[in-house]
């Protein structure tokens, strides 16, 4: 039985002239990635505290003011949107840390 498949995978063979370019790009990525990750990790406790507090307190206050009836034109939807956005920003912040840790 004769096989017509090549002995090597041509897609993974890179010419020798491209190897230094990939190494330079990898080094540049490390130069950007490591300081950015350091800054994100240093700021993480503060960012988590502020965004979690803003989101949680905003939701609780919005629900209390909506059902208390003290304010006739209370912007419940807008306040809930801002509070949920704060929590989504926290999720995005942690996702960004995860991207830079890889």
Strand content: under 5%
Largest sheet: none
Number of strands: 0
Tell me the overall shape. Answer: elongated
Mean pLDDT: 88
Helical run tally: 2
Low-confidence sequence ranges:
none
Strand/helix succession: HH
Q: Which structural class do the helices and strands define? A: mainly alpha
Radius of gyration: 25 Å
Alpha-carbon distance between the termini? 45 Å
Query: Portion of residues in helices?
Result: over 70%
How would you summarize the topology of this molecule?
Blueprint: H1 19-68, H2 76-101
Helix pairs in contact: 1-2
Please explain how this structure is put together:
By secondary structure, the chain is mostly helical. It has a domain at 41-101. The chain contains 2 helices and no strands. It has helices spanning 19-68, 76-101. Helix 1 packs antiparallel against helix 2 (76-101). The protein is elongated. The model has no long low-confidence stretch (mean pLDDT 88).
What is the gist of this entry?
With 102 residues, this protein is an all-alpha fold. Helix content is 75%, strand content 0%. It has a domain at 41-101.
Features:
102 residues, 75% helix, elongated, single chain, mainly alpha
